[in-house]
């Protein structure tokens, strides 16, 4: 593929950063790891209400390639995560982040892939849904995957998985306090946070859709995991 | 002096019509007669970068170049292109980024308006920020057309995949090569008939094939190809007739 001068990448990333910062969306915050480098972002993800992750505050680093948006960024949790699709080093394994070539999941699951119209926002929404709907077909952490299945198949009677997640969520509270962040714990707060401070210029449909999608996600969280897991932009 | 560094090169006569990228894929024995055939019908070849996006890039450049001298078709295309944005947003592509790609696409399209020149188009198609965004948007148009007409295409894709999966794996990612189905889709999405000369292993001459988006409609007979591409295994370039 063409060697894109990183000028395109810088332009695309600046545009996205500005958009997210002026019109925050539900479930996460972003900032640059270092103000002089647009290619590395720090993101903080809020655990979705009514899930094991409720109240959690999870930090991750996103690294963008020089040919962004033609190739996807990588996402690595800094917060310790016990999850079927997160490697021990924190790296997130999710179909939307797979580069177009050498796709290990090819032909397995109907799931969102990377394309140049995907954004930080669509990635993070996918990651948020992945938290509660792990993909156990190609786990990055096999032990976590086995434990998750036990928990799920026993309908919550086997509590090992649940206990570990709750403990991890608890452990993130300190970090949230340190950052002076109040993590939303009700669906209403979670979504209200997404309302931009100045929404007079904003396309109302855009936010209406998001709101409805999110409600759908919450309701479906314990359903079949082979459903479209990203739940965004499909309405 | 021709170089292979650009996305779309300045046109120069290429008397050999030799494959610049993978000569090994075309047996030495068939090449001379096919080159001879091309030389008898075409005066020039414009090379495009061999990066998996060559079909889109060749299509985009060759088509806009024909629009430089066809104001009526430009007007029709401009409206089609303008309208396509809402269709794609309707299919679920993220609005924010889609608009960015569409805006850049339209900026390149508008370069056709007077005083548009081939030189200006060459420059635009060699500017990564414009050229690659343009390619992305053409890919989205193909994806959109396939998804909107999924019933007609579902039997023409490999493997047990839905049209949406096919699009996300074989159409939307940059650098994914184009096949017959991609060409059919783009020519139909934009209603542009084109011809492709296949310099492949079969026969002594190039096999030409017209992609006619009006096939089966009342306009079918007017489908004169507006430009011609040359296909050599794995790569598309632009041909200029004598």
What can you tell me about this protein's structure?
Chain A is α+β, with helices and mostly antiparallel strands and 235 residues long. Chain A is built from six helices and four strands. The radius of gyration of chain A is 17 Å and the shape is globular. With 242 residues, chain B is α+β, with helices and mostly antiparallel strands. Chain B is 47% helix and 11% strand. Chain B has nine helices and five strands. In chain B, strand 4 and strand 5 (235-241) form a beta hairpin. In chain B, helix 4 packs across helix 6. Classes of the chains: A alpha+beta (235), B alpha+beta (242). Chain A: Pathway: Protein modification; protein ubiquitination. Chain A: GO terms for molecular function: ATP binding; ubiquitin conjugating enzyme activity. Chain A: Belongs to the ubiquitin-conjugating enzyme family. Chain A: Residues 215-235 are annotated as: Disordered.
CATH homologous superfamily descriptor of chain B = Peptidase C65 Otubain, subdomain 2
Order of helices and strands of chain B: HEHHHHHHHHEEEE
Q: Which strands sit side by side, in order, in the main sheet of chain A?
A: 1-2-3-4
Approximately what portion of the residues of chain A adopt beta-strand conformation? 5-15%
CATH overall fold name of chain B = 3 helical TM bundles of succinate and fumarate reductases
The protein's oligomeric status is heterodimer
């Amino acid at each position: 593929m063409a060697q894109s001068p990183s000028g395109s990448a810088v332009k695309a990333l600046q545009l996205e950063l500005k958009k997210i910062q002026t019109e925050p969306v539900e479930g996460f915050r972003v900032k640059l790891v270092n103000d002089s480098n647009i290619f590395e972002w720090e993101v903080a993800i809020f655990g979705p209400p009514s899930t094991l992750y409720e109240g959690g505050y999870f930090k991750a680093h996103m690294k963008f390639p020089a040919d962004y948006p033609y190739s996807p960024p990588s996402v690595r949790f800094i917060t310790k995560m016990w999850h079927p699709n997160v490697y021990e080093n924190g790296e997130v394994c999710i179909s939307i982040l797979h580069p177009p070539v050498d796709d290990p999941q090819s032909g397995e699951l109907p799931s969102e892939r990377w394309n140049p119209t995907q954004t930080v926002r669509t990635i993070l929404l996918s990651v948020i849904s992945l938290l509660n709907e792990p993909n156990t077909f190609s786990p990055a952490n096999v032990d976590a995957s086995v434990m998750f299945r036990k928990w799920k198949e026993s309908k919550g009677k086997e509590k090992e998985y649940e206990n570990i997640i709750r403990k991890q969520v608890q452990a993130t509270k300190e970090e949230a306090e340190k950052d002076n962040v109040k993590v939303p714990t009700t669906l209403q707060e979670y979504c209200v946070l997404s309302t931009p401070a100045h929404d007079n210029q904003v396309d109302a449909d855009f936010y209406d859709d998001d709101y409805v999608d999110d409600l759908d996600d919450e309701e479906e969280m314990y359903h079949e995991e082979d459903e479209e897991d990203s739940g965004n932009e499909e309405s | 002096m021709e170089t292979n560094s650009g996305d779309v090169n300045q046109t120069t006569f290429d008397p050999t019509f030799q494959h610049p990228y993978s000569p090994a894929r075309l047996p030495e024995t068939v090449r001379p007669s096919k080159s001879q055939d091309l030389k008898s019908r075409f005066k020039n070849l414009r090379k495009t970068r061999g990066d998996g996006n060559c079909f889109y890039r060749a299509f985009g450049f060759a088509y806009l170049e024909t629009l430089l001298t066809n104001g009526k078709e430009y007007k029709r295309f401009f409206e089609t292109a303008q309208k396509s944005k809402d269709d794609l947003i309707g299919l679920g592509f993220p609005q924010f980024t889609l608009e960015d790609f569409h805006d850049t696409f339209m900026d390149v399209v508008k370069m056709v308006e007077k005083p548009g020149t081939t030189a200006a188009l060459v420059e635009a198609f060699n500017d990564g920020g414009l050229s690659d965004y343009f390619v992305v948007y053409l890919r989205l148009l193909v994806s959109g057309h396939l998804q909107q007409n999924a019933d007609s295409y579902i039997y023409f894709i490999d493997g047990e995949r839905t049209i949406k999966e096919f699009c996300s794996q074989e159409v939307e990612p940059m650098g994914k090569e184009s096949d017959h189905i991609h060409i059919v889709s783009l020519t139909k999405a934009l209603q542009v008939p084109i011809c492709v000369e296949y310099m492949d292993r079969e026969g002594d001459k190039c096999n030409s094939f017209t992609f006619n988006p009006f096939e089966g409609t009342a306009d079918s007979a007017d489908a004169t190809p507006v430009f011609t591409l040359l296909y050599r295994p794995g790569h598309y370039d632009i041909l200029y007739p004598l």
